[in-house]
Amino acid sequence: MLEASLESITDDVQEALRSEVRQIIESEGLTQAFIAREAGLAPGTFTPWLGGTYKGDNVDKARAVQRWLETRQARGRTAATLPAAPKFVATLTATNILDVLAYAQTAPDFGVIVGGAGIGKTTAIEEYARRASNVFVVTAEPVLASPNNMLSALADVVTVAERRSVYLSRAISAKLRGTAGLIVIDEGQHLSSAALDQLRTIHDKAQIGVVVAGNESVFSRLQGGERNSQFAQLYSRVGMRMSQPKARAKDICALLEAWKITDARVVSMLKLVAAKPGALRQMTKVIRLATMLAAGDGADALSEQHVRRAWNQLASTPLDAVA
């Protein structure tokens, strides 16, 4: 990339920048609107600058484009040292999650998946949605706790235009009825009990499958202290449930095999990582960072030192501490 200082953006430098951007557009198929967004410029400003017809401060725009090119080049260097994560790994846990999703969609029924952080719930849900038709996934967050907010997010995924809260449930049910579809709520612990009950209503009216995945609090609401008459209708709808608090040893080994990590000492350390909060997700982060550190050292393979350095950058507790 052109090495021009920000203080010396002459007309020739600008033309060189424009030429470099045009080459990127042609070779990678990027749009001008995409580049403008990444460069922090309005499309209506970037397009005339690229064409050499902008009437405003061209030097200022050229500096923004130069920063974008330099940032892009830096990202490329970093990306080259990061290993690509293995494609979907059919661990025992993932297979069990897929079974719950498939059952709920086929029956159709109401399913609950409860699991600790990082055991692979989201990855399995994404894989199922990729394979199956009419799967509508909503990732819950605190702001979606209320029934109306949850329905609004679901309407976006289902592509329902209705936005009046009193008619949302009816419109969603009508759109989904007869589709043999499946609603999946990931991070379901963020939903209120009333929002969960609203999902029960859609399940009944649309006659489609519903699966709620989340941490232990999701299921405890259904089977614990809140299991009273208010929740009897919802609890009775749960046809299949799965509960797994942490990653299985076989899951950890399957993922390490997919990463092609065989050094016994490195495997042992990564198993320690996977036994901690965050499980497989945290282990994957450590592997990616450790691989980057190894590449920076010119090493051909991961070592214990790389894993430990990666862990120290990502966590605040010693790796050897009891999980």
Automatic annotation (TrEMBL):
**SUPFAM superfamilies for the chain:** C-terminal domain of B transposition protein (SSF47681), P-loop containing nucleoside triphosphate hydrolases (SSF52540)
Q: Which domain of life is it from?
A: Bacteria
Domain B transposition protein C-terminal: from-to ranges: 236-314
- ORC1/DEAH AAA+ ATPase domain spans which residues? 109-222
Give the InterPro entries listed for this entry. Answer: AAA_22 (IPR049945), B_transposit_C_sf (IPR036733), B_transpositn_C (IPR009084), ExeA_AAA_ATPase_DNA-bind (IPR052026), Lambda_DNA-bd_dom_sf (IPR010982), P-loop_NTPase (IPR027417)
Q: Output this protein's name.
A: DNA transposition AAA+ family ATPase
